[in-house]
Amino acid sequence: MAEKIVVLGGGASALGAAYELAKHNFNTTIIEKGKNIGGLASSYKIDGFYIERFYHHFFPTDELVFQLAKELGIKDKFIWRKTKMGFYYKNKLYGFTSPLDILRFKPLAFMDRIKFGLSMLKIAKNRDYGNLDKVSAEKWLIGVFGRDAYEKIFRPMLKIKFAMSIDNASAAFVYGRLHARAKSRSKSLVSEKLGYMEGGYNSLIKALYNRIRAKSEIIYNSDIVEIRYSKDRYIIKISKSNKIKIIEADYVINTLPLEIFSRIAKNFPGKLMHCIKKIKYQAVICATIGLKRRLSDYYWINVSSADLPFHGVIEHTNFIPSRNYKNFHIVYIFNYVSPEHEFWKVNESSIKKAYLSGLQKMFPHMNRKDILWFKLSKERYATPIFLQGYEENMKKIENARNLYFAGSFKIYPNSRNVNNVIRTGIDAAKDLLKENNL
Ligand SMILES: Cc1cc2nc3c(=O)[nH]c(=O)nc-3n(C[C@H](O)[C@H](O)[C@H](O)COP(=O)(O)OP(=O)(O)OC[C@H]3O[C@@H](n4cnc5c(N)ncnc54)[C@H](O)[C@@H]3O)c2cc1C
After folding, report:
1. Whether 120 and 151 share a structural domain
2. N or C: the chain end with fewer CB closer than 10 Å?
3. Which domain holds residue 147?
4. Nearest atom in ligand 1 to 383's CA
5. pLDDT tens per residue across span 154-187
């Protein structure tokens, strides 16, 4: 009997792994808790169109995705657009796209605005983050941009990404994010160009799925509750329709967030589990709203106002026109939160109420009657938290006993985008094939 390869989880990393294995003519079994493939990159289907559950765009640096799109015959679907960014600071909306916007950003002293622009240019030019893994993001940002810019611009942003762990955030990760963002700008930093795909990320997910389909069995609605190693094989316990089922595997690629993996993994080496348990994840609560009218000119607005219950507003239809969405104006509101945040304790209608009154406060001209639909996605394990010393620990999480790791925990210090996580899946599959002479 052919050896069996099982992929845990069915998001973008899993699709990357299954794609690589299918290329080499190997069958795969993917086990997914949800009823769809795509994980964090999956979409809602509304009125005949697809829209991501969490805002998504491509960066000009997403080279693997461009290559994949060629292989999948969808390279003509890319759309590139200049986007405008805003910064909502203490109840006032500022432009935050061009150097001129920065020069006009009154909350900062004039010399700090100049310093900000020059430092961003420097970061755009240099990809190498040097020895920043163990350096505190706060210390590094204050050194580069000055204390005032840190307090007014970066601290609120760090708070968004790191919530409870802001003091230990890693400078290497912040550098990676700033570099990716700066690289998506024109040489003079005047504008930012971001990418999308006709039909959204669903087009990419669907094309990958169609390519792997013949070689992959996808078991949906199946919660993996245990994985253990026994007699040279993996025994995977899944719960499906309240029944426990066992799946055996010779090789496993794990794409589940490591906090989940650490709960389901039995009899794994203690040293490995120690490093895995050190990696924690941030949650996200994201609303997608369909409106009759647009709210602003901006695609992306960072929000730094203590009295608002979210940290970002993204007006998707200022990027991809509303005519693609039956003329709905689509707006995301999001908040990265800790697992202790009150939003985990209340029901969806309380979050909806809080989000909409926050939005109304930000845009007093918004008419509540213009809100046509509201959807909410909550994801407890949205992104790993990249703390100081993360890289050293991450490197210790090595493939063991025919178990291979993929997923966003492996992309540090780069951005945890779809491009990079697909790469982790492909790399895990390559390692599996190489190490076992398959
Ligand atoms: C708010 C937000 C905005 C983003 N914006 C962008 C963007 O603009 N551009 C970009 O490229 N990327 C963006 N990303 C990142 C991107 O979506 C993710 O990095 C990527 O989708 C992660 O894929 P993954 O396969 O590693 O993980 P996941 O998508 O999390 O996949 C893991 C899968 O495992 C399943 N699972 C979990 N537990 C179990 C279990 N016990 N049993 C079975 N299955 C299980 C889950 O249902 C899920 O499908 C964004 C992410 C978020 C949260």
Report:
1. yes
2. N
3. 98-190
4. 53
5. 888 787 666 556 778 889 888 888 887 777 766 6
